[in-house]
């Protein structure tokens, strides 16, 4: 027999003017969840889209984010590995025309308080150099705790946050 994966939309946030962050809520069991980020960018400068695990509107900023990927650009490629970060950080984009980020995330074990929350990601972006870039990989939050949401925000250093000015963020449950 064949199994066909389906998606049940859980929440969507469409950003059309400056917001400090985007929270996607509604993760209520240990199903796999898919998150699609379409055309996210900012009007402040050359900054990253970032992600943190969260419970309702409380994010976890502990240095427990470990992630790695293979980045492919129009001119080069390379590996990236980031241990003990305070967020998952995407490619840096800027404010020029066409600069933006598109992502597909899969979230695993988000609601399980006895194991690590983990994710995979695929990215296609036009970065701040400007050049076309892609990235694929995965990560985990290496503290066993339950999460029911995810927060996206824009940043330039460990502590600096800026507004996200456009994008559509959609969370689905894989059924």
How confident overall, as mean pLDDT? Answer: 88
Radius of gyration, whole Å: 15 Å
* DSSP summary: helix tally: 0
Residue runs with pLDDT of under 50 for 5 or more positions: none
Secondary-structure-derived class: mainly beta
Report the β-strand fraction as a percent range: over 45%
How would a crystallographer describe the biggest sheet? 8 strands, antiparallel
**Major β-sheet strand ordering:** 1-14-3-9-10-11-6-7
- Following the backbone from N to C, one meets helices and strands in this order, namely EEEEEEEEEEEEEE
Shape: globular
For the termini, the CA-CA separation is: 16 Å
Estimated helix fraction: under 10%
Strand element count: 14
Could you please describe the fold and organization of this structure?
With 175 residues, the chain is mainly β. It is 0% helix and 59% strand. The chain contains no helices and 14 strands. The strands form 2 sheets. The protein has an 8-stranded antiparallel beta sheet with strand order 1-14-3-9-10-11-6-7, with no helix packed on it. Strands 2, 4, 5, 8, 12 and 13 form a 6-stranded antiparallel beta sheet that branches. β12 and β13 (161-162) form a beta hairpin. The radius of gyration is 15 Å and the shape is globular. It starts with 6 loop residues before the first strand and ends with a strand. The mean pLDDT is 88.
């Amino acid at each position: 027999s064949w199994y066909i994966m389906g998606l049940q939309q859980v929440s969507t946030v469409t950003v059309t003017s400056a917001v400090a962050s985007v929270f996607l809520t509604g993760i209520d069991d240990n199903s796999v969840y898919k998150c699609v980020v379409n055309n996210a960018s900012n009007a402040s400068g050359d900054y990253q889209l970032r992600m943190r695990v969260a419970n309702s509107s409380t994010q976890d900023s502990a240095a427990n984010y470990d992630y790695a990927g293979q980045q492919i650009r129009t001119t080069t490629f390379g590996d990236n590995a980031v241990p003990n970060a305070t967020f998952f950080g995407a490619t840096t984009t800027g404010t020029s025309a066409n600069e933006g980020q598109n992502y597909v995330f899969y979230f695993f074990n988000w609601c399980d308080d006895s194991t690590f929350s983990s994710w995979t990601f695929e990215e296609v972006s036009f970065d701040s150099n400007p050049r076309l870039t892609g990235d694929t990989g995965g990560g985990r939050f290496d503290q066993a705790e339950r999460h029911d949401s995810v927060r996206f925000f824009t940043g330039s250093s460990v502590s600096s946050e800026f507004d996200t000015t456009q994008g559509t963020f959609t969370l689905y449950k894989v059924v």
